[in-house]
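Protocol step 6 of 9: fold each sequence in the batch and record its structure tokens directly after the sequence line. For illustration, a two-sequence batch is reproduced in full.

Sequence one:
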Amino acid sequence: MSRRIQVIGAHAADFVWRAGGAIAKTVERGGVAEVVALSYGERGESGELWKQPGQTVENVKRARHEEAQAACAELGASFRALDLGDYPLEIGAAELQAIAEVIREFAPDVLVTHTDTDPFNPDHPVAFRAVDRARSLAAGAGVQSAFATVKPPALYLFEPHQPELCNFTPTTFVDITSVFERKRAAMAHMKAQAYLQTYYAQRAEHRANHARRASGNAEVRYAEAFQRVIPQVVSEL
């Protein structure tokens, strides 16, 4: 069965570092992937671009959009930006409805976003709360409602930059060995944050070590870590 994965990040590049492999793996297996950026990260996530003389917000947004689209093309995903602004990312009723509609329209089987805590990034927890609530609105809490709903998607949190400080406990490792070069190529498009490319390549090797020990599969060379939020329903253990 074809799987549908939707990754919603606070900023335009969040998806590629933390879930680029899972996106590519879904597509490789015949699934469909969509990336949604709540903002471009034009103010707080684009340091390299702001070093250019005469830089403007609109030029930074345009560059970030092009980078994200190119990265998504490498992974086989579509890209959508809501352009809600960053630092601070503010979510009111209208913005919440827009996020819920995006989830309702795509109807993902799997929804991925940030952790609920991040002491170094003020926008990431805001994104978590918005996506978590929008998911419930889009799914109608899993019951018949007076508005259109979707089947409740599984909710996962991708690994933050400082997992120990962000309430992140890995529950799921995704073997991304077969698609890692696609992730590497996607990361290379994010020139506004080029310094993160080495970090997340090393993180994929680190998590692969954990995945090998957890599974006994010596073939895992690269992996991504996720934390499942909604309990899994099975017929047997």
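Sequence two, same batch, same settings:
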Amino acid sequence: MPRAARLTLAATFVLLSCLGAVAAKEFAMPTAQPARTYPAHDDHSTEKVVVAVDPYDVEDKASIFSVNFRNYGYLPVFFVITNDGDEPVSLVGMKAELNTKNRSRLYPASTDDLVRRLSHPSRNDRQPTLPIPLPRKEVKGGVSRKTWDEIERAQFGAKAVEPHSTARGFLFFDISDISNPLAGASFYLMGVHDAKGNELMYFEIPLEKYLSAPATTNLK
């Protein structure tokens, strides 16, 4: 075989291999470390519960997803909660908020919110700041089954944290039209209850803890 033909064949093989690798990419949830090991955390030592957040705001971290959520106006935030106590804690009534420096109150997007935005990128489906439940239309089609599965697998969905264990997952916040959403922002978590049904004190995490922390290699 002529040398030129061999080079063309080799280049084609490499290209097809790369395309196959991209097509085969599957989302893998990052391994959670104990919540107190993350720079941005709030440790309730008396209640033995620690909450941490780790924004996936840079390309190397966000590359674990097949979808570039930032291009659609969403910021993925890795949410970690560790229960160091001897009884489970309930997350059934959990309410998370990201409050920006301009006092915007952002709430985690639902699966339907994300699918709707990915289907219609020009839409702005940010939830209202007033805590009034609004009816939502069911999302039909618009994204691939793989993307839908990735969203569902990535989103935080734990209803409880067992004793001496850690739960983790992603919360997606709509930051479209918000420049530099982390500067001066704080994350709040409410509605966590102990085994007796008592609500724990709310958690508050200034995102400056994350922004001012030394750069580290992302743990997966």
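Proceed to step 7 once all outputs are recorded. Observation for sequence two: The domain at 28-211 is CATH 2.60.40.1150 (Immunoglobulin-like).
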